[in-house]
Design a protein that fits this description.
The complex is a heterodimer of chains A (about 220) and B (about 80). Chain A is α+β, with helices and mostly antiparallel strands and about 220 residues long. Chain A starts with 6 loop residues before the first helix and ends in a 5-residue tail after the last strand. Chain A is built from 8 helices and 6 strands. Chain A has helices at about 5-25, 40-50, 60-65, 70-95, 120, 125-145, 155-180, 190-200, and strands at about 100-105, 105-115, 150-155, 180-185, 205-210, 215-220. The longest helix of chain A has 25 residues, at about 70-95. Chain A has 2 domains: about 15-155, K homology (KH) domain (GMP Synthetase, Chain A, domain 3); about 160-220, R3H-like domain (Ribosomal Protein S8, Chain: A, domain 1). In chain A, strands 1-2-3 form a 3-stranded mixed sheet, with helices on both faces. In chain A, strands 4-6-5 form a 3-stranded antiparallel sheet. Chain A is elongated. Chain B is α+β, with helices and mostly antiparallel strands. In chain B, about 35% of the residues lie in helices and about 25% in strands. Chain B contains 3 helices and 3 strands, in the order H-E-E-H-H-E. Chain B has helices at about 1-10, 45-50, 55-65; strands spanning about 20-25, 35-40, 70-75. In chain B, strands 1-2-3 form a 3-stranded mixed sheet. Chain B is globular, with a radius of gyration of 12 Å. The chains are: A alpha+beta (about 220), B alpha+beta (about 80). Chains A and B meet through helix 1, helix 4 and helix 6 of A and helix 1 and helix 3 of B.
Chain lengths: ~220, ~80
């Protein structure tokens, strides 16, 4: 019984990957901080920070632009592999869903769109995360490169992102109005990253405090000088 | 359907997809069932993943597809009995 489902573990491993990403983003200039992790991981993290179109620093957003055109073809290929893999699964499971592919920033985005896909999202997105993990492996098998493909199912990630952006924006406004730090609920690294970005867009700074899995964002009021 | 889904998911991530086979076994107490996945020995690491991460992902998806009924997934080298 204990062996059949282990969503906590899935969540934790996903966290581990994203923690590194978030830490680097938060410390921006200290790539050294990831030196203690495995070398493959730090390569991935560095790549993530430098090329992610959603990185909080505007200078970095531009970095995703002037890529060689071969990169776009590569991301499109990632989408194709993902679509084949996921379509095969939908057919077998007799689930209706259309697959949309897109490239956002420096990342392939793949979405399964349709009704009754809650099954594939799971509680808190655990099944979605597992499918994303497997689909990335399928891509790696085909292309030989690690993939950062982002999978969404039934709009789950999109909705969560909107919600988190709203939370970040509101917290920044509150921090400004009260001129006091605002502490938010514990969140996953991915969630915190979305909040940090929303806070930055409001012109406030933010940092993360506490230990996983209770790590949370603190939004700082603007420096008063 | 579960066997087929598992086979598809595993075939897509290994270097030797033709060596993948899945066999279903009834659980002793008839409550759940066990799916045995056999893969090429070189692919064992791949289906299990670092810290069992890939195996966990496969189990999570299979549990979702079985709509609540417990499923056990065991990973074996294709030559194991």
């Amino acid at each position: 019984m204990t062996d059949t489902t282990q969503p906590e573990v899935t969540e934790l491993t996903e966290l581990t990957e994203l923690i590194e990403v978030t830490e680097v983003i938060e410390t921006t200039d200290s790539v050294d901080s990831t030196d203690s992790v495995e070398s493959t991981e730090s390569t991935e993290v560095t790549d993530e920070t430098l090329s992610d179109g959603e990185a909080p620093k505007p200078a970095k957003v531009g970095a995703a632009g002037p890529r060689p055109s071969g990169r776009l073809a590569q991301l499109e290929q990632e989408g194709d592999v993902a679509a084949d893999y996921l379509e095969g699964l939908l057919d077998i499971a007799d689930l209706d869903g259309d697959i949309d592919m897109d490239v956002e920033g420096d990342r392939a985005m793949v979405s399964i769109v349709g009704e009754d896909l809650d099954l594939l999202v799971g509680k808190g997105g655990t099944v979605l995360d597992a499918l994303q993990e497997l689909t990335r492996l399928a891509i790696t098998r085909e292309t030989g490169d690690r993939s950062r493909m982002m999978l969404d199912i039934g709009g789950f990630r999109a909705a969560r992102r909107d919600e988190l952006t709203e939370i970040g924006t509101k917290a920044a406004k509150d921090a400004k109005a009260a001129n006091e730090p605002v502490k938010l609920k514990p969140m996953t690294p991915f969630e915190r990253k979305v909040v940090h970005d929303a806070v930055a867009a409001e012109g406030c700074a933010s940092e993360s405090e506490g230990e996983e899995p209770r790590r949370f964002v603190v939004v700082l009021p603007p420096a008063s000088d | 359907m579960l066997e087929e889904a598992l086979e598809h998911l595993v075939r897509g991530i290994v270097d030797n997809p033709d060596d993948v086979s899945v066999r279903a076994r009834r659980g002793r107490d008839d409550r759940g069932r066990t799916l045995e996945v056999r893969v090429h020995p070189d692919d064992m690491g791949r289906v299990i993943g670092r810290s069992g991460r890939t195996a966990t992902a496969l189990r999570t998806v299979l549990s979702a597809l079985s709509s609540g009924r417990p499923v056990r997934v065991d990973f074996l080298d294709q030559h194991e009995r």
